[in-house]
Each structure stands twice: as C-alpha cells, then as structure tokens.
Write a structure and sequence with these properties.
With 148 residues, this protein is α+β, with helices and mostly antiparallel strands. It has two domains: 62 residues, 3-Layer(aba) Sandwich (Ribosomal Protein L9, domain 1); 81 residues, Roll (Ribosomal Protein L9, domain 2). The strands form three sheets. Strands 4-9-8-6 form a four-stranded mixed sheet. Strand 8 and strand 9 form a beta hairpin. 15% of the residues are buried.
C-alpha cells in the first residue's frame, strides 16, 4: 500500500515522503497512529506542492544571499573602540558588534554566530572576517578597528 508519511518513521522514511509499505503495517500501525495517510490524488498533490514550495524557498533564499554577498564582498567595516595603555583595547571587538555594524552600514541582518574572525580582535588594526550568508555562500570582509 502506498502512503504519505506525516512524520518521520524509523525504517520507513522521512516526513512528506511517498513510501510503499505492507497493507497490515499501514492499516494497523501507521494510519491509526496518524503517522501516515493513504496516498490518494489529494495527498499526492499536497506532497508535490510542498516540494515545490520548499524548492522555491531555497531559490529565493539563495538569491537573497547572493545579493547580500555582492553588497558585502571586499568591503571594510569601521568600528571604533576605547583604548587602554599600549594601544590595546578594553576587552575585544566581538562578532556581535560586527553584526550590529553590518546592519547599520549595509542594512543586512547577519546572525553573530555566522561571523568568523581570524583570531581575536584585541588591538587596533584591520582584520579579515568571513560572513556565512547561506549554505555555501560566504562573503569575505575586513574589519578596521580605530580609536574613539
């Protein structure tokens, strides 16, 4: 019997998949527990529409990430910080501050966990950073830290 899975079922498949299972397994286990529904025309159409929607979302997210990459690629972000003695910073410049500055300068919202910095920023100067915008799309930026 062909069924469309409504949840992940160990040994059968993932949510939204069309699978062929034995009649008894479907009638006695999957259907009563609402883990699957019978694969009729409506259910197959829903699966097809869900797959198309997922594919469309991936395409739009990728396009947005590529636009953001074009805006950010090889740009320099300026951050000012207070200095202590010997030209060292009080604390360090964090990825949270870099994310806020990207939002302020370019209007692009980037999660702080998606920013990787070469080492820690504890002194003035220019540092290289990578911003992961989407799966496989990475923009390389420079962060210039100067005194207030």
């Amino acid at each position: 019997m062909k069924v469309v899975l409504l949840q992940d079922v160990k040994g059968s498949g993932k949510k939204g998949e069309l699978v062929n299972v034995s009649d008894g397994y479907a009638r006695n286990f999957l259907l009563p527990k609402k883990l699957a529904k019978e694969a009729n025309a409506q259910a197959l159409n829903e699966v097809k529409n869900a797959e198309n929607a997922r594919r469309y979302k991936i395409e739009t997210d990728t396009a947005d990430a590529n636009k953001s990459k074009e805006k950010l690629e090889d740009k320099t972000i300026s951050i000012t910080a207070k200095a202590g003695s010997n030209g060292r910073l009080f604390g360090s410049v964090t990825s949270k501050e870099i994310s806020a500055e990207i939002k302020k300068q370019f209007g692009i919202d980037v999660d702080k966990r998606k920013i990787t910095v070469d080492g820690e920023i504890k002194a003035f100067g220019t540092y290289n950073c990578e911003v992961k915008l989407y799966q496989g799309i990475v923009a390389k930026i420079k962060v210039k830290v100067s005194e207030v």
